[in-house]
Amino acid sequence: MFKLINFQKGNYKKIIVRAWIIFLSTIAFFCFYIFAVTVNLFWLFGKMPDFKLLENPKSDQASEVYSSDNVLLGKYFIKNRTPVEFDSISPHIINSLISTEDIRFEKHSGVDFKATISIPFYILSFKPKGSSTLSQQLAKNLFSMRKIAEYKGILYKVPGISALIIKTKEWITAIQIERNYTKKEIITMYLNTVDFGNNAFGIESAAHTFFQKRAAQLNVNESALLVGMLQNPTKWNPISRPERAIIRRNIVLSQLVKYKYLSEKERSTLNTEPLNLHFKVEDYSQGLAPHFRAVLKKELERLLTDSNFDLYVDGLKIYTTIDSRMQKYAEESTIDQMKKLQVLFNDQWKGAKDIWRDDEGKIDTKYILREVQKSSRYHDLQERYGDNIDSIMMVLNKPVKMKVFTLNNLSYEKDTILSPMDSVRYHKRFLQCGFMSMDPTSGDIKAWVGGVNFRFFQYDHVKQGKRQPGSSFKPIIYTTAIDYKGYTPCTEIVDEPVVFSKDEYGQPWQPRNSTGTYTGQSLTLRQAIAQSVNTISAKLVKDLGPTRVIEYAKKLGIDVSHMEAVPSICLGTQDVSIYDLLGAYSTFVNGGVWTEPRFITRIEDRNGNIIQDFPAKTIEALSEQTSYLMVHMLKGGTQEKGGTALGLARYKCFYNNEIGGKTGTTQNYSDGWFMGITNNLVSGGWVGGDTKHIRFKNYLGEGARVALPIWGTYMDKVYADNTLGIKKGTFKKPAKLEVELDCEVVKERINQKDSINPYRPSADSLGDDLLK
């Protein structure tokens, strides 16, 4: 018996020793395994995330564009993610997340070993349950160790082993995250990195996408829905699978009850509520100023070319000069006018299949084909069919389902069936527009409308587009005459035919007035510009020379790279952009100082550090006196008999206010312009077809009828908004003005036969001394 006991004791001792050996060996192996994974021993396991990255984890983050009044205008992103701080997240989100995903979040240190050990029991009971903590899920979201090649080692090719290595790396990373961050910071980072589907990354983007709310505004049901989606955004998607989404939401509500975040009574009420979604996927075509943001994007890409920043992932903050309120007023004013004009335009061309005309007014039968051939669809078909035009045209003439633009409903689109050819023909019948408003002193652009609809018409008609300005270019001609040759607003010139000879310009040319007649009367320059008399501007160009006019256009910020020194410049036949022309007009209001139109004030990185700021660029282009004389000339449009801007009297902005303005209408009514100036705001607009082939038949296409109403409506809205601080007022006058502006006084002097008459300069009496 004693021997048996000794034997049993001996065996027991051996068992204990072996158990300790196994235990210690397991511990040693586990420690060695952790060490091997951490250091990527023999390149078997792949790299671990760098510790510096753990201190400053970086996730793709949308760059945001802000207005001058701090309103978010839009984003540039690959993944639509906008991070928020813990205090800007609804507590209902936090409670739902902890109760559903990691109830022991406050107790563990990155890995919940209790939950991990219990996994086999859940498997045996056929109730699978995940054990990943929020810290582990954060590690997965931040570093993508399952996808990125540098995190994969040789052993990843062994089936089953790769999953263990990945899990181990996530454990190690989660523990390191816990050591570096507080619980609040971890849960905030987690909610800023998770994917909710529908291109919404992070809780702030998800709240906006599904409910048009901020993350801080989410209620219990909304929070439960979004947290429930995290398990599988596709499976529980409330848009494509609303019934499933409700079931999943109610499960989260039950978890809130289980862990005392919600009462049973509250849950029973919330369970029956519908989803109440306000779903809207964010994209570039939505929101304020989409054409502006498209132009801004190209400019930012250029500015960041040689930097270490990526516009689409680095979470930059771009602060612009656009005022969200003024932008809204500009968009409302343009769309309101375009709806009215489109009705008139359609009535004029009612019954006509093809409305596109050449310079002689004949139908351009090849126009639509040429426009189709510019499209990416046509180029794709060329790659497929080569030179087989019949096959290409067969596809282009085949009707298909599509969405097309319409001005008849709030969504500005409708479903229909059209062939690609007919779609181009349909969309070319819509008029287009451009409008810009800026502070003449700072150069800050306050509003920018590049077209009637960005989704269907992405071409920008403010900066990208250039069209013939017609008479709205004449102020530059008059500026040249005043500044270079000493003309004054009271200088008189006879309205009579003007001929540019063949010897001077290659072929004889005679410009005509819009009325087709000549009065033979002497007009002051102020009367001539107010009435937009072509013969007067023609005489000025003949006296000055087209080259001199172009020089002054360049001084005033006009892109003259494509301008030709030809007589027709007197009629504004050289293409310009609203952006450039408005900059020139602002020079008159700003005392002769040209200020480059500015739309960016600064760019910051995701931490608020300024990468680059953009001070105003200025050039002293004109004297203070010349600029004020031009302001006085432009006021003639709203004051002189026959002034083309007298139509502003229909608007409130006209009264108790000093306004200057100039209309512009091109040949065959292809383009209608209006540029207006006040003491603190310069704005201008253009209306026309997509190309000059699309136009009104008659005077309905004049600038005073198509573009001036946009300006008037916009200014009424601006003055009505007291929060803007933009008031009616008078233009700043030079302390000493050496030119008499009262033309009656001037006539009296002429009648007295002054020995020096500065108001009728001849070709032989030139120079600045004429102003004295």
Task: Give the gist of this structure.
41% of the residues lie in helices and 10% in strands. It is α+β, with helices and mostly antiparallel strands. The protein has 3 domains: 2-39; 79-270, Orthogonal Bundle (Penicillin binding protein transpeptidase fold), CATH 1.10.3810.10; 439-602 and 617-771, DD-peptidase/beta-lactamase superfamily (Beta-lactamase, 3-Layer(aba) Sandwich), CATH 3.40.710.
Please name the fourth-level CATH homologous superfamily of the largest domain: DD-peptidase/beta-lactamase superfamily
Q: Round the mean pLDDT to the nearest integer and report it.
A: 87
CATH topology of the largest domain: Beta-lactamase
How many runs of DSSP E, i.e. beta strands?
16
Shape: elongated
Note the main sheet.
Answer: 5 strands, mixed
Strand order across the biggest sheet?
A: 2-1-3-11-12
Structural class: alpha+beta
CATH hierarchy class name of the largest domain: Alpha Beta
The number of helical runs is 28
Uncertain residue ranges: 118-129, 755-772
Overall structural domain count: 3
User: What is the distance, rounded to the nearest whole angstrom, between the alpha carbons of the first and last residues?
Assistant: 138 Å
Give the C-alpha Rg: 36 Å
- Helix percent reads 40-55%
* CATH architectural grouping of the largest domain: 3-Layer(aba) Sandwich
In terms of DSSP E residues, the strand content is: 5-15%
